[in-house]
Amino acid sequence: MPWFGWIAIIAIAVFGTLQVVSMISGRPIPWDSEDQDTEGLEERVRALEKKLENGQIEPPRVPTRSEENLAAEDRWRLDMLETRLENLEATGDAPRTSPPQEPPAHPRSHPDTTA
Questions:
Q1: Are 82 and 89 in contact (CB under 8 A)?
Q2: Which structural domain range is residue 65 located in?
Q3: Which residues lie closer than 8 Å to 22 by C-beta, 6 or more apart?
Q4: Into how many domains does the chain fold?
Q5: What is the pLDDT confidence band of residue 1, given thresholds at 50, 70 and 90?
Q6: Has residue 108 been placed in a domain?
Q7: Cβ-proximal residues to 29 (8 Å cutoff; 6+ apart), any chain
Q8: Region Disordered: which residues (predicted)?
Q9: What pTM does this model have?
Q10: Percent of the chain at pLDDT exceeding 70
């Protein structure tokens, strides 16, 4: 094998070793771009904590049981609507893509002009 082949093999081995060490230690590689990302996130967290202390944002809270139930009901309704739409598309009765039309006005909703 030529000499430059050995250089490539050694470079790949060193790079792989660095990746494994960084994953095990939890620290990014020193020249990695994650350093800048981490610093930016730390600054953002500090700014959010400062806003929280000043009362500009409300603290996170655990949702109540009724809020959880409402969210579950909304998800269930959404699932039912998606299933209904899939069934309509499968049978060929899919809703038309024409613009919606206004429903006819109820006769009692307008003032009577014949009296």
A1: no
A2: 3-88
A3: 28, 29, 32
A4: 1
A5: confident
A6: no
A7: 18, 19, 22
A8: 83-115
A9: 0.32
A10: 74
